[in-house]
Amino acid sequence: MLKVNIFVLIGFVVYFFYIFINFKKFSLSYHIILFTFLVYTFTLIGITLFPIPIQPQAIEMLREIHITNNYIPFKSIISNIVEATHWIVWFKIIIGNILLFMPLGFYLPLIVKKHMNVRKVIIIGFCVSLCIEVMQMFISLLVNCRYKAFDVDDLLLNTAGTVLGFIIFKFLYYVLQNCLKWDINRYIEFKKS
Asked: What is the pLDDT of residues 28-52, one digit of tens each?
């Protein structure tokens, strides 16, 4: 199985090279936000795309499992709830897909400094999830084995998670800015003053 470790290492080397070149241009809060976003991104990639089966035995085992794609909305959500032997099984699948994308919705207004609204968040969350699903299909073609299923319900749950993360960010921003009277923008400025 091809694991994510080498890609994480390459990503961090590129990031630290970027910091070395641009450190004086941006604030410490920018670097912290960018670093934690990078950690989240590699975690997301590691969970959704890896491990990739490259050994013949692993590929043969996956072929015997008969992983199927789902193109019908809510089909796998309903079947996971109905067919699960224990509530924790469907809870992990459904809530896991939502939780996996919540950080993306939280990071979007921090990283994209232009006005971010729910419509843009839905589009970005859907597109990121779609890219992951398409990459899974592409990798399946490369290894000649369906190692992960394309599931339209993943798109729905991931997009919902992105929106939920954005709503939580907006709520916390409002509470800190208006109720606690903190000047949050001062802490998330990207350029050094």
From this structure: 788 888 889 999 999 999 999 989 9
Average pLDDT over residues 89-118: 92
pTM: 0.88
Q: How far apart are CA 18 and CA 39, in angstroms?
A: 15
Give bridge partners of residue 2 from the DSSP assignment: 52
What is the band of 112 on the pLDDT scale with cuts at 50, 70, 90? Answer: confident
How many angstroms separate the CA atoms of 151 and 100, rounded?
Answer: 15
**How many domains in the chain?**
1
The answer to whether residue 95 is domain-embedded is: yes
Cα(101)–Cα(97) distance, integer angstroms: 7
The whole-angstrom separation of Cα 135 and Cα 182 is: 42
Beta partners for residue 151, in sequence order: 70
The reply to whether 101 falls in a domain is: yes
